[in-house]
Write a structure and sequence with these properties.
The complex is a heterodimer of chains A (499) and B (154). Chain A has 22 helices and two strands. In chain A, 76% of the residues lie in helices and 1% in strands. The N and C termini of chain A lie far apart (45 Å). Chain A has a two-stranded antiparallel ribbon. Chain B is mostly helical and 154 residues long. In chain B, helix 1 runs antiparallel to helix 2 and helix 4 runs antiparallel to helix 5. The longest helix of chain B has 24 residues. The termini of chain B are far apart. Classes of the chains: A mainly alpha (499), B mainly alpha (154). At the A-B interface, helix 8, helix 10, helix 17, helix 18 and helix 19 of A face helix 1, helix 2, helix 4, helix 5 and helix 6 of B.
Chain lengths: 499, 154
């Protein structure tokens, strides 16, 4: 078996002590920021990017992936114990998890979410391992028109699935593309929209923009709300779920894994939407739907399995097509580029060690998280007790330093602050940050694919190639569908059902 | 202002117009040989179209959504937010001149004070000092990042 021998090679790499250490550091940081409500994987991975500059590329990718799936583990802890989701992907877990904690069953809830996460995470890595090479082979046949179509499709999906008005999402996506043009023109080498600034010559960096919109803006929003969070520590006795809990949850975990993985592949679905869908599906299929919201263990198992399964799914398009499925993956794409590695169909051939090493490290990391999480819950609760007025200056400090150490350029700090204010104001006016940031990252690739396609000498090239035409049609349909009232109503209903 | 969307629609419209006109400074090329100004021009037009759509929708519905308007314009503790932004801006400008130790210490100190917490000065000093020392230990000693030493450095 080809896959088995490759996987053995991967484990040969991932089991080296250095790789184990980076994997451990990654999942530990991931769990920590998963627990802390004010800071998420996007800001953290951006923050760690400059640190990974001098590192071996495999080490850095292993660590950054660890942060991503580690955060999904950590998010559930706060949802269950204090009814505050540490990550957006753990919002649904609050519904039944917190109820369980109030009934004195915080232990089994935490235990089940850890086991569910482990199973979901592992199944999704198997899926990733089987699917990514297949997809990469197909992707090798894609030309610029197809790539252009695929990237637009990704953008359209992010826009379609983000909260609120699709029109506003589209505006943010176009604005993101516009900002991505700043810098040197990739084909003619001419500087565009730079206002003669040396900093802008390299374009607006992904890291300052992401830290601004997802780090600083988040802090500003929280400050304004001035939430006084109160943490009470429920007694946790016995984290192992009972046999009945397992019986109740086994199908929730199985379905959650599949829902999470396949939705995770779809660009734009991220890790949040799968949790809503997994929860809704369990509630629909359950013989006792009235138990949901009253502390049903399936209501914890399903979303927690799904968000971890989605992490493996969302790596599929990045590793096989080079197209990020969500904002976190977009930042990870930045990490690949920093190391001069182009993720995409050629990744498997050119850097098999990186691909299989990362996959193997994810198996190991999921195991580490399971072992790490159960005994450390007490520590996480203590960290939660840190008041926000102490926490936020430290988040600001890290963003500040992270952006500066990227290029030792103080003007990039200024760019981060500008994006922080922009992100704060735009969410205030109902504009989501995700389409903007996705567009900013994809922008240069979109433009290059667009112009290369036109060089074929036929402006209708996008419609002459059936694959490109189909996917472009789908993207345009997604983008304009809300304008038709029937579909808009159905979408609204779906949104309400999710809430 | 009837509706917050009106404000944002006008903002995006202005940005779209700016982008469209600015992109004419670069060669447009031909459709078969697109120049550097081609893609920005397309985006500018697209942004104008979308902003106009938002404007039209807003004007049509401006009377019904007073509730959403008040919700969106509620700026709550905006003074606190503005204070933090000002602190960050000042810190970014003096970072290289004053050096990282002084700047970061002051930044943490003032933002903790301005952030609405109820900590005593003693605690604030302690946390700021601890944070600055950890930056030195982790970023400078461990990760070997080059941070500006400013007036403290020789």
């Amino acid at each position: 078996m080809d896959i088995l021998s490759n996987l053995f090679m991967g484990f040969g790499i991932a089991l080296l002590p250095v790789k184990l250490l980076f994997c451990f550091v990654g999942v530990l940081i991931g769990t920590l920021i998963g627990v802390l409500p004010g800071i998420g994987p996007v800001a953290t991975i951006s923050l760690l990017l400059p640190v990974t500059f001098g590192m071996d590329p495999i080490n850095s990718i292993i660590m950054l992936c660890g942060v991503y799936y580690g955060a999904m583990y950590g998010g559930s802890t706060t949802s269950i114990l204090v009814n505050i989701p540490g990550e957006a992907a753990s919002v649904v877990t609050c519904l039944d998890g917190y109820q369980m904690a109030r009934q004195g069953r915080a232990g089994p809830a935490l235990g089940m979410s850890a086991f569910g996460s482990f199973i979901g995470g592992t199944i999704s890595i198997i899926g990733l391992m089987l699917l990514a090479p297949l997809l990469a082979r197909v992707a090798l046949k894609c030309g610029p028109p197809e790539l252009f179509g695929l990237m637009l499709f990704g953008l359209a999906m992010v826009t379609y699935l983000c909260k609120g008005s699709v029109l506003k999402g589209l505006i943010m996506a176009v604005a993101g593309l516009a900002v991505s043009i700043i810098g040197v023109d990739p084909i003619y080498g001419l500087s565009r929209f730079t206002l003669d600034s040396n900093t802008l010559l390299d374009g607006v960096g992904i890291v300052p923009a992401a830290m601004g919109m997802f780090g600083i803006a988040e802090v500003l929003t929280n400050l304004e709300r001035s939430v006084a969070q109160e943490v009470f520590a429920p007694r946790i006795s016995g984290i192992f779920p009972t046999a009945k809990d397992w019986l109740d949850s086994k199908w929730a975990i199985a379905r959650g894994s599949l829902i999470g993985f396949f939705l995770g592949i779809l660009p734009g679905a991220g890790t949040i939407i799968p949790t809503f869908i997994a929860y809704t599906v369990e509630k629909r299929l359950s013989p006792h739907p009235e138990r949901f919201g009253q502390g049903a263990i399936e209501g914890v198992a399903a979303p927690e399995t799904a968000n971890n399964a989605a992490t493996g799914g969302s790596l599929v398009p990045l590793l096989s097509l080079g197209i990020p499925a969500n904002v976190t993956m977009a930042i990870l794409l930045g990490a690949f580029i920093i190391h001069g590695i182009e993720p995409g169909p050629l990744l498997l051939n050119r850097h098999p060690d990186l691909f299989w090493g990362t996959i193997a490290s994810m198996y190991i990391g999921n195991g580490m998280l399971l072992i790490l999480n159960l005994p450390l819950i007490g520590l996480w609760v203590k960290i939660l007790r840190i008041p926000y007025s102490i926490l936020f200056p430290l988040i600001l400090l890290f963003c500040f330093l992270g952006v500066y150490s990227l290029n030792n350029n103080q003007y990039e700090i200024l760019i981060m602050i500008i994006f922080g204010v922009f992100g704060y104001l735009s969410s205030k006016f109902g504009f989501e940050g995700a389409p903007f940031l996705m567009a900013l990252v994809l922008g240069p690739m979109v433009e290059a694919a667009f112009r290369q396609s036109l060089l074929y000498g036929d402006p209708l090239i996008f419609f002459r190639r059936p694959a490109a035409a189909a996917i472009l049609f789908l993207s345009v349909f997604l983008a304009i569908s809300p304008l038709f009232s029937g579909i808009a109503k159905r979408r609204k209903k779906l949104e309400e059902a999710l809430e | 202002m009837k509706h917050p969307d009106l404000l944002s629609a006008i903002f995006w419209l202005a940005l779209g117009l700016l982008l469209t006109f600015w992109s004419s400074a670069y060669s447009f090329g031909e459709v078969n040989r697109p120049g550097p100004g081609f893609f920005p021009f397309c985006l500018g037009i697209l942004l104008i179209l979308l902003a106009t759509l938002l404007l039209a929708k807003t004007l049509k519905a401006s009377s019904v959504s007073i509730k959403s308007a008040s919700a969106a314009v509620m700026f709550g503790e905006w003074k606190r937010v503005a204070l933090i932004v000002v602190i960050l801006l000042i810190a970014s400008f003096v970072f290289e001149q004053l050096g990282y130790l002084i700047t970061l210490f002051a930044m943490v100190l003032f933002s903790m004070r301005g952030g609405g917490g109820s900590q005593s000065w003693k605690k604030i000093f302690l946390v700021s000092a601890l944070a600055t020392v950890s930056v030195y230990l982790v970023f400078v000693l461990l990760l070997k990042q080059l941070l500006p030493t400013g007036i403290l450095g020789g």
